[in-house]
Write a structure and sequence with these properties.
single chain; alpha/beta; Rossmann fold; 8-stranded mixed beta sheet; two-stranded antiparallel ribbon; 7 helices; 10 strands; 21% strand; globular
Length: 235
């Protein structure tokens, strides 16, 4: 399924694909584990310790006014057990490009960060997942549905909207939202967005909880369990 303008960064299309040959000199052996800077544009990564299989790449997107470290903190304490390499790009502006002017700069930033992390660390080839909180969740949904041939799952914690110019494929979606959220009220956001996505044919798992604009541990753990069940096999 594809519709919309040509498939470029200005329509939300990503191009970097994890795997051998992602970049010249791509890694063939595990690099060091832990928190690491990636490239020169502020991206951070959490790299799990070496294991028998390469980790799965999850690109995690921060909320408005936040930094990549806060995006990593969403999932970091379970990354080792889940076999995840977490990559958190930094938005060009205070929030993601589509919100402040249109797709382009941050799509290219994500592509560059994926290329750079795959040059430094082996990851499972082929696809990766997108996750995010607040504006990062909105952006993960928006970009995820435009890249269903590349993004194999989307996790959106308390999203506000979805803005897409192109749709490709049918990635499964996990959406959570607090019923007392005063920043992005659930009645205006996920309670409208989720039925719309389901009506359009997406497989959506929705977790509404008692709370505000936050990510409770039980919801985070449920999302990680869901993420483990929704993955493309390694090539």
């Amino acid at each position: 399924m594809r519709w919309g303008p040509p498939q470029t960064a200005t329509s939300g299309r990503l191009s970097a694909r994890p795997g051998p040959g992602t970049a010249p000199g791509a890694a063939t052996a595990p690099g060091p584990a832990g928190l690491q800077g990636i490239g020169t544009e502020g991206a951070l990564a959490y790299v799990p310790p070496p294991a028998e299989r390469p980790p799965r790449l999850v690109v995690v997107l921060h909320g408005a006014g936040q930094q990549p470290r806060q995006a990593l903190d969403l999932l970091c304490d379970r990354a080792d057990d889940a076999g995840l390499l977490l990559l958190a790009p930094a938005s060009t502006a205070r929030t993601w490009d589509v919100i402040v002017g249109g797709y382009g700069p941050d799509v290219l930033r994500i592509d560059r960060a994926v290329t750079e992390v795959c040059a430094a660390h082996p990851v499972r080839p082929g696809t990766y997942a997108l996750a995010g909180f607040s504006d990062g969740a909105s952006y993960a949904l928006s970009v995820g549905v435009a890249n269903g041939d590349l993004v194999d799952a989307v996790v959106a914690f308390s999203p506000g909207f979805m803005a897409q110019l192109l749709r490709t494929g049918w990635p499964p979606l996990f959406v959570s939202h607090g019923d007392a959220d005063r920043v992005l009220p659930v009645d205006r956001c996920s309670r409208r967005l989720v039925p719309r996505l389901e009506a359009e044919g997406y497989d959506v798992t929705y977790a509404e909880f008692a709370g505000g604009h936050e990510l409770p541990d039980p919801i985070r753990d449920r999302a990680l369990d869901w993420l483990a069940r929704n993955r493309e096999p390694a090539a």
